[in-house]
Amino acid sequence: MEEKILQVKELSVSFSGGVQAVSKVSFDLNRGETFALVGESGCGKSTTARAIMRLIRAPGRITGGEVYFEGKELLGLSEKEMTAVRGKNIGMIFQNPLDSLNPVYTSGSQVAEGLIVDKMEKGEAWALVEETFRDVKIPDAEKRVKSYPHEISGGMRQRVMIGMMLCRHPKLLIADEPTTALDVTIQAGIIELMNDLRRKYDTAVLMITHDFGIVADMADRVGVMYAGEIVELGDVFTIFDHPLHPYTRLLMKALPVITKKEGRLETIPGTVPDLSKPIQGCRFADRCPDACDACRQYSPAMVEAEPGHLCACHRVKGGEGNE
Amino acid sequence: MKKSKLWQVARKPLFFIGFLMLAVVVIAALFAPLIAPHGYAEMNLALKFTAPCAQFPLGTDQYGRCVFSRIVYGSRIALKVGIMAVVIETGIGVTLGIIAGYYGKKLDQAIMFLTDMIWSIPPIILAMAIVLLLTPSAENVAISVALVTWAQFTKIVRVKVQSIKNLSYIQAAKVYGESDVQIILRYILPNLTSTIVILASLALPSAILSTTSMGFLSLGAQEPLPDWGMILSGGIQFIERASWISFWPGLAIVWTVLGFNLAAEGLKELLDPRMKV
Amino acid sequence: MSDMGKYILRRLLTGVLVVLCVTIIIFGIMQAMPGNPIDLMVDTRVSPEKVAELKARWGLDKPPVVQYFYWLGNILRGDFGTSITTKQEVFFLIKQRLPYTLMLTGAAVVIEYLVAVPLGLLAAVRKEKLMDKSLTIIMVVLWSMPTFWLGVLFIMEFAINNRFFPISGYSGLKSLVLPALTLALPSLAQIFRLTRSEVLDVMEERYVETAYAKGVADKSVLIRHVLRNALIPVTVTFFLNLPWLIGGSVVVENVFAWPGMGQLLWKGIAKQDFPIVQGITFVIAILTVICNLIGDIVSGILDPRIRVE
What we know:
- The structure holds 3 protein chains of 3 kinds.
- Chain A is α/β, with parallel strands linked by helices.
- Chain A has helices at 45-53, 79-85, 107-117, 122-135, 141-144, 154-166, 184-201, 212-218, 236-241, 246-253, 293-297; strands spanning 4-15, 19-30, 34-38, 61-69, 72-73, 90-93, 172-176, 204-209, 221-226, 229-235, 303-306, 309-311.
- Chain A has a single domain (4-89, 170-312), classed as P-loop containing nucleotide triphosphate hydrolases (Rossmann fold, 3-Layer(aba) Sandwich).
- Chain A has an 8-stranded mixed β-sheet with strand order 6-7-8-3-9-10-12-11, with helices on both faces.
- The longest helix of chain A is centred in the middle third of the chain and has 18 residues, at 184-201.
- The two termini of chain A are 34 Å apart.
- Chain B has a single domain, classed as MetI-like (MetI-like fold), CATH 1.10.3720.
- Chain B is elongated.
């Protein structure tokens, strides 16, 4: 069943001062598939995720493009229609479970809130909340539903978030660095849980991460983002087997030193270009070990190097495979 | 850089209006004898309760004194008492804040307990008690208001000092054997300047409100001195006959306090727009 | 709930400690006053033996520390002494006037909170828009108003020009309107500003984004998540500021000849009637501590994190 559940076409987002955080990003997700957007922090991957949910706050705004969810265009919906899509059809979990739960409500009631939005009876909702807590493997579920967020650990809180977003069986889950703020020991458990549940409910996942380890564990296909653009896109085996874009290769080399804390990877020399000014040529040219004159002159177009494997680099020729 | 920021702030109409309003008050205070058509204590019982007219622009009070002249002279008292109160409360508050923040431990706890204590007594009532103890006068009002309001300085300065004292060059100064007093005067106090200026400028309008309230309760400068609060309270019993006696001094207070408030906002915007007070 | 119980108990003990310290401060000031209460209370014709007896009753022949406990003991028994000027029991005078002061400050408190919080929320939602800017300007002007002048304006407009309300004194609930507004309006500004800035801060919180991502409608997010959290610091500050409001009532009562304690206190001060001044100050201190205690309890209810600390 190769049906597209999400199609993102030339999505652009800009912030104040003319910062073009996301420029013309396109990709799509099949039903039940996991797609990972990978890149350094500040590359626009989180902004892309928020733009799909239309959670970009002023002064940031979506400046162009289309987002289709099950064939329905989202960016043109009224705020009310979009509210109905959020949570019910597309769920989202965030990077830091420590502050993504409201401190003044019990964790259970925050899960129930979403169910009540779906017009579920209170009693029924609470029963489902308890079941959900068991589903996400929280011990003492019947007690923990009454715990406040500050009374449970970060890993547990992320489980609550996952439960909150999956108990309504959305067809798509957007996970923005779901394990980054957690201890390494807890990360594996969360990934395993997400893998189990997405298979169980056949949920498509858009995974935002900077960690190729997680990509390997979860993703079917990968998009590599740099400075607001997707520079390489393909299925996970191809990308790991023969990455085409120099940036992807450098990013993968940096893999072993990726720490559990979010932060710029120091292993790739140079800095991301200033996105508030127009950029001539390839955005990666200044940091690229293979950059040539053409790279500084023209920006490379996305070409299909082999079926399903796209790359935007002057060194890569369409249809020829490597180099 | 500095200049462009000053320009930005000066361009905001509200701050500009604030400074203009203040200029009027300061000019009135400086040139009172030239501006006021009459002396502040000049009585003329034959002309009592005269409505505003050419001779008495804002009318006369129950003793036939010119309300306008009394208000003009009164600006001197209002500014003097307000500024004096702020200077004293800044002195006490900053000193205690530095001591609490710099030395920490027991001394910190004691000072914090004291500030909590002061917070939990209604300030006007405590100030009234203190004035009563010192006998009512303009100076004593300034002292008493200062004695009940310094705590806000202490709280903020203390937190600020706690963060400053661990800076490496201050630690280094300690290692070089500089005394605590030297460190405080040379390194810590300069770091506090903008905080203190902001706090003091925000405290000034409140101080003027508090001191004129004390004047209203006849605890401030005594007759025949023209304390704005006192002129106003003196007029209330005649409000149906001569509302101008109470109306105009009140407007003078609002004018002054509003001017200071707007100017203080501007100053805060200029020095440290993110500071929470 | 037992967490809550322990929390309240801890706060109650702190409150008692504060009252003790406040009484020490009052007593200290009293001690420092020129003359002593008995000499002021009795006139010169009273025999020295009688004076000595009175002094013994009040413990005035003992060292200050002992005197303090005598004084405290008397106060706790409800013996506030007798007024120097009217010769009435101070306790009786206070009992007569306390309800009026509570009525005035209570009404002002309700007005202040119910007006300032929604306006603060409105200004935050309409940040930088015309509504926000005009509200902010109105609030700065109110903040700059002395209560006594606002009272005069109200009297001139609503009691003299249009006889909607009585000018002064107490003659039914209608008399309450102008004094309560006078007391509430100037202090509104602070709560307004705090609500506005707290709401803006909370809007940046991640859990608000979570709520939106859940598909909760805009209004519910604003009330259930944003305002609910912003109210914690707002309420704490609100109760911390109550002493200012209670203090302000002294002034307002004098503008409107309101028959509360503030007026009595002022007369007491003007006539150097020490027992009245001490008694009222003590009662107000207790009131303040009670307000703070209620504030602590309310913030404990609002914020589950405080209870454990």
